[in-house]
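Prompt: I keep going back and forth on a fold encoding question. Comparing notes only helps if you start from a blank page. Show me how you would write down a chain together with its backbone fold. Please set it down just below, with no commentary around it:
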Amino acid sequence: MTETNRDALRLAWTRTATNDPSIELVRASVDAGFRSYWRTVGHAASNSVIVMDSPPDKEDVRPWLAMRDVLESGGVRVPLVIARDVDAGFLVLEDLGADTYLHVITSNNADTLFDDAIDQLLKLQSIPVPTTLPAYDEPMLVRELKLFEEWFLGHHLGMVLDYDDLERLALVYRRLTDAALAQPQVLVHRDFMPRNLMPIEGGPAVLDFQDAVRGPIAYDPTCLFKDAFLSWPQDRVDAWLDRYHARAVEAGLPVPDLARFRRDADWIGVQRHLKVIGIFARLNHRDHKSKYLHDVPRFFGYLDAVLPNYPELSPLAELIEHKVKPAMRLRAGVVGE
């Protein structure tokens, strides 16, 4: 189906679902996948709604709906569904506003906003993991790690790793994977970060949860405080992680002692940082979404802050310092010419 045909189908369905033939749609937001979001305008009702368009041949809406129900049953604030056509890939959702945490968070209100986010995260992590959810198992962890070498090192930098480099990466992947699997396992959102949190009363409301899995307990707190699009001073990140840990203990969640938790957060952070660098390169080269590359240096900053603290991860640190960063500088120089 062409984009024009999809636009017409979306508008016609929305007018029928809302019983308002005068309604129009304007773009509300686009995520990194194939879904798009549209806000209603020009209709008789006083309140706008959001239309989620999830083309069924590209991104089935059923996992989103199923996880929404799971989270709501556990007390997590999620968007209300007003109307749906699952086969066509259309939903009408309540309009939670235009601003996410990413738009409104500042150094002055971050403590309060993150404490509210922890409220929702503890509820999420307390939900028994549905048996239908995949596990964040070894194949998934390694597959994600390999995005770094395939898409960032290979496609983006044009690097060809020699045998020793591949051996060193494989060793680090093994250690990161073993550490992730050794963590207590809970329900994991996988993108619990400011862009996916809506600052509303009784919230924040949680978005973009369809890829949830059973996985390591330190994953989501690390996502929250080491965001893809926003960085904080390390001392504040440390204080927020400690705050999360204390509240998780109070909530009866299976967190280890604080020192072990902090190590777990660092190590699962390395796994995520490598994955996201790879994803951002893939978004650029495969999906022609270049804006994400601007945030890649943020993740190398996260890696630079953590890797020197763990000799077990030194093969990765050495590869980045001696081969990856020079290749990045060379590419930046070529592109800048």
User: Anything to note?
Assistant: The longest strand covers residues 24-30. The first helix runs from residue 3 to 18.
